[in-house]
Design a protein that fits this description.
This protein has about 260 residues and is an all-alpha fold. The chain has one domain (about 20-260). Helices cover about 75% and strands about 0% of the residues. The protein has ten helices and no strands. It is elongated, with a radius of gyration of 21 Å.
């Protein structure tokens, strides 16, 4: 067989390197999330409305804010709400309909391994969460938010741990719901859970605002995420208990998802 001349195209069939495939999948997932009107509503619009409305109404309602200004308590809580909306509700709904239309089955037959698909979804989540946090931080600062930065490294570490563990916990729970229910049932349940946790799950308001129910609410992933965010940005501390609760939910959710998730 003759040797091809220099510069001659030589086909080299095969999959791209895993890192490149994961990055491409993450870019596609990010674009799909941001192009979807419902996802954008959950990711950015509702948290902004909750923050602005909460700050405006806090003085009239008389909510227990532990002696702090409304904007200083509500902004970390709404940041936590934004993480929950994307990592749980958006992931559950998008994955449920991807299962229904066979998208996940098709991707499962591509050179991208299934764990690569999940890595791509995780990176897309972090991209969207980062965008959410930037928007909400700007809105909070415009409203007069003054985050406590008495110990910046501790605040940053607490914030990073809260966002990372919160994203992992809620993403695992979102995939758990999407992997066992029909798309329509996933849509209804994900939105219902989101509304219930936003109203009474200790995410936007401190658990102390719920009176006698506070100890029970504190074990919910929503409350753990909210308390961890408030500890980092209001008290400049790391709330170890809340982070452990989030880690436990992440582990349990991941194990259950691995056992029950159906790809079609």
């Amino acid at each position: 067989m003759s040797t091809p001349a220099p510069g001659t195209f030589i086909p080299a069939p095969g999959g791209a390197p895993l890192a490149r495939m994961v990055r491409a999948q993450a870019r596609m997932e990010s674009r799909l999330m941001l192009r979807n009107g419902e996802q954008l509503l959950l990711a950015i619009v509702i948290p902004v409305i909750v923050l602005v409305g909460g700050v405006a109404a806090a003085g009239r309602i008389g909510i227990d804010l532990e002696g702090h200004r409304a904007v200083d308590i509500l902004t970390p809580g709404v940041l936590a709400l934004a993480v929950m909306s994307t990592a749980f509700t958006s992931v559950a709904i998008a994955t449920g309909f991807e299962r229904r239309y066979g998208v996940i089955k098709l991707l499962g037959s591509s050179p991208l391994p299934r764990y690569g698909l999940l890595l791509g979804k995780a990176l897309a989540l972090l991209n969207v969460v980062a965008l959410q946090l930037v928007v909400l931080v700007v809105v909070g600062l415009v409203l007069g938010w003054e985050p406590t930065l008495a110990h910046p490294p501790r605040s940053v570490a607490g914030l990073a741990l809260a966002v990372g563990l919160g994203t992992a916990a809620f993403a695992a729970l979102g995939l758990l719901v999407a992997g066992v229910l029909r798309a329509e049932a996933t849509l209804a349940l994900a939105n219902l859970v989101y509304l219930l946790l936003m109203a009474g799950g200790g995410v936007v308001l401190p658990t102390s605002a719920y009176g006698a129910a506070a100890p029970a609410i504190g074990w919910l992933p929503s409350a753990a995420l909210g308390e961890a965010m408030r500890a980092a940005l209001v008290d400049a501390t790391i709330d170890g208990r809340s982070l452990l609760v989030l880690a436990a939910w992440a582990v349990v959710g991941t194990l259950l998802t691995a056992r029950t998730f159906r790809w079609e």
